[in-house]
Amino acid sequence: MKRRLLLGGVVVLGAGLAGCAGPQVQDYAAEKPVLNLREYFNGTLDAHGVFTDRSGRVVKRFTVLMVCTWAGDQGVLDESFVYSDGSTEKRVWRLTDHGNGRYSGRADDVVGEAQGQTQGNAFRWGYTLALPVDGRVWHVDFDDWMYLMDERVMLNKATMSKWGVRLGEVTLSFHKRTP
After folding, report:
1. pLDDT by residue (tens digit) across 65-121?
2. How is the chain split into domains, by residue range?
3. I need a labelling partner for 20 at 20 to 30 A (CA). Which of 13, 35, 66, 125 fits?
4. Alpha-carbon distance 62 to 47, whole Å?
5. 32-176, superfamily in CATH?
6. What is the 3-class SS of 110-165, one letter each residue?
7. How many Å is the maximal CA-CA distance in the chain?
8. Is 7 strand, coil or helix?
9. Band of the pLDDT at 22, cuts 50, 70, 90?
10. Is the dihedral of CA 112, 52, 159, 44 positive or negative?
């Protein structure tokens, strides 16, 4: 019992400290080029990425084909993943632009609703993903940061955690196809 209480206290303390430490999206307000999420995620994009475990070892490599469309304030990001082991996955994000750089989103494997905000060249996106792991489903929290480099390239770094414990990172580069 003491062990559970101690562990719970450490997790709560860690989560509390993580919430106030580190960069905030407002820190990037003056950075250029300014990210217009609806413009960037409109059309076809290619992405290349890796998942690294907490030691930094690459566990999976993957590519993503994204077809993105907007109708008014509603966007659809249709993602098709191909992993280095030959497996595939599909995720369809349905986004809502709430104005003032604020977005929400849903996908079939997202628990609840994702929340995000843009400032300057950055987009911070937080959500919980239901990930299948060894025959079980884990609810894993993502702290997802995207940085617009130029009109075609965006870099993405997402930290994955469970109960406040860092599990690994996903690193991606997005390349927008020219029309």
Report:
1. 999 999 999 999 999 999 999 999 999 999 999 999 999 999 999 999 999 999 999
2. 32-176
3. 35
4. 8
5. Calycin beta-barrel core domain (2.40.128.20)
6. EEEEEEEEEECCEEEEEEEEEEEECCEEEEEEEEEEEEECCCCEEEEEEEEEECCE
7. 61
8. helix
9. confident
10. negative
